[in-house]
What does this fold into?
Amino acid sequence: MKTDVKSLTKEELTLWLKDAGEPAYRGAQLFRWLHREKVCDFSAMTNLPAALREKLAENAAPLGLVLRREQVSSIDGTRKVLLEAGDGCLIESVSMLYEYGRSVCISSQAGCRMGCSFCASTLNGLVRSLSAGELLEQVYFLERGEREPVSHVVVMGMGEPFDNYENLLRFLRLLSDPEGRNLGARHITVSTCGLVPGIRSFAEEGLQVNLAVSLHAADQKKREALMPVARSYALPELMEACRYYVGKTNRRITFEYSLVKDRNDGMEDVKQLISLLKGLNCHVNLIPVNEVRETGCRRPERERIRAFREALEKAGIPVTLRRDIDASCGQLRNRA
Ligand code: SAH
It folds into this structure.
């Protein structure tokens, strides 16, 4: 059994190396190579003795992911990659340049078992959850060789992050470790489909990470039709957890709302949304649905999207419209 060193904290690395008879400072050295230098090849770790480098190559799990496909937009430079892990499973990640910096969207699982009706990631179910090291490597991969460093990370690719809670938390702590990549927690966003126990636990972690919740409908029946998870965690329970999160962390929640033609894009829908969110410290991110052939979900006309947005603005709810990137959520993997 090879050790997944990239998922270990500095303290855990130090202990692991100590058990192998290495001095304590080797842990800090290795941690630095992994998370500061972002090196994937033990032979490049030049301040470690050759014998240790060989031992590591033998006993540690592979550090990298292999590029299988890549797509770069000629319009805005958005870069989508399909990466392969050691066991052959495929992961999708996206890098986007904004005025404020480089934002990277990563996957938390290969596949997904949440079954949302508009989403491509879930079409073939869950393959497996990703390790903390595999989450980190997606960020490092998209940062290597780029002029602009990654300034923001969103866990909004394939998979449900709260269905991989322990590895997610490990990832968040490693990514923001001052001795590692040192990305500010406030620059990281985790998106959940609404797993209530996850939201409640997340509120207790003492992290400054942003939380986004996929709402997609303010009506229980409509939400169930779009997202099977709504049957397990109904709207009143979900909203109570969100209020608890906001109260506990003093942080604003983002609600994602993918607009699907004739399913959740009407004036009645926006009215219900406004009354559901009244008084909550939140922000709505509207996502005109990316049309995935197998799902039959269609994007509303531009005029309808505008009306939906304006109604929210008029009600005093901060709203943004997501840039059209025909991006992640399993769409590249399914074409491979
Ligand atoms: N499992 C997490 C993260 C997934 S993806 C979650 O559900 O939040 C990030 C967002 O994109 C979610 O709001 C998800 O519902 C949405 N999404 C997935 N497929 C989409 C599609 N084809 N068009 C528009 N939004 C989509």
Observations:
- The longest helix spans residues 235-249.
- The domain at 5-59 is CATH 1.10.150.530 (DNA polymerase; domain 1).
